[in-house]
Amino acid sequence: MGLVQGLSLFGGLIKCNLFNQKIPLNVGFSITNKCNSNCIYCRIPKRKVKELSTEQVLEIIEVLSKNGTKRIGFTGGEPLLREDIEEIIDFAHNKNIFTSLGSNGMLAEKKIDELKNLDLLVLSLDGGRKIHDTQRGIECYEKVVSAIKKAKENGINVWTVTTLTKYNLNEINFILEKAQELNFWASFQPLHHNPKLAGNTEKIMPSEKDYKNAVRKLIQAKIEGKKVANSMHYLNHLLYWPDSIKTTKCLAGRQFCHIDSNGDIFPCFNSMEEFKALNFFENGFEKAFENLSGLNCSSCLSANCMEYNFIGSMNFGALMNLRNKSF
């Protein structure tokens, strides 16, 4: 994040915290449900939800910019399946909005020129070739590694995100070694999507003991200076879950929200299909955003949501973790 973007975000945080304003500083935006992989913990491609046109997506970004949005994270499905992805990224970039994009990496190398104005490329990496391809449901490990290298060569910041299941808890060291080798930041995420978005994940859920041990390993790696992107505050939140709920408040619907591929506005990604959302085009952004005050939630396991909560609360550790990284 550049100096101007950082100062702009800090100004927004001041308004939210000192003056109790509701500002959508961080917005997740699902721009498609289509996907070219078949992950064992995701049923998003099976959703039957309308996809917005290019003009509608750009209209939403324009309104978000006017309402104080500092960051947009494009997600899906697989966002790179959209033929207009370069136009969407460039439009947000020209509004001085920090833009990130989450991808499985299958098309990233091919479309690298279209990503030149992207601030952060987030690629899924669940472990070595065998584990990664098993969890993603398609042979794509080599394409992810190639995409990381290509993005770095083109000056695009890269993070990876690893979804932790019982199959890949032993892959943490491998991923951190790869992060050191290729110079990217690695983030880690427990299974957390609601059943309508993830399906039944009970069979791939780690035991609580194994899960906590994995979190302890990440905390130790963070202490040792390895390239763990998650903040220490978030890792401790996971370690002491669910007791950590008591010390955390949710800022979804106040400082961040999520927009579905049809323009419905939800408090967060995990509330999709669980919350009675209003649509951007039917109700206008202000009314749809105000509707989010009906969320009754304290905190969750989502890395994105919780990091936003910590940053939004101006937690010193979370802000320091952000300082030298893109977010």
Structure description:
The chain has 327 residues and is α/β, with parallel strands linked by helices. The protein has one domain (23-230, 253-298): TIM Barrel. Helices cover 39% and strands 13% of the residues. It contains 13 helices and nine strands. The chain has a nine-stranded mixed sheet, sandwiched between helices. The longest helix is centred in the first third of the chain and has 16 residues, at 3-18. It starts with a helix and ends with a helix.
Brief characterization of the structure:
This protein has 327 residues and is an alpha/beta fold. It contains 13 helices and nine strands. The protein has one domain: TIM Barrel (Alpha-Beta Barrel), CATH 3.20.20.
Describe the protein's topology:
Elements: H1 3-18, E1 26-30, H2 54-66, E2 71-75, H3 85-94, E3 98-103, E4 120-124, H4 129-136, H5 141-153, E5 158-164, H6 172-182, E6 185-190, H7 195-198, H8 208-223, H9 232-239, E7 256-259, E8 264-266, E9 278-279, H10 280-283, H11 285-290, H12 303-312, H13 316-323
Parallel strand pairs: 1-2, 1-7, 2-3, 3-4, 4-5, 5-6
Antiparallel strand pairs: 7-8, 8-9
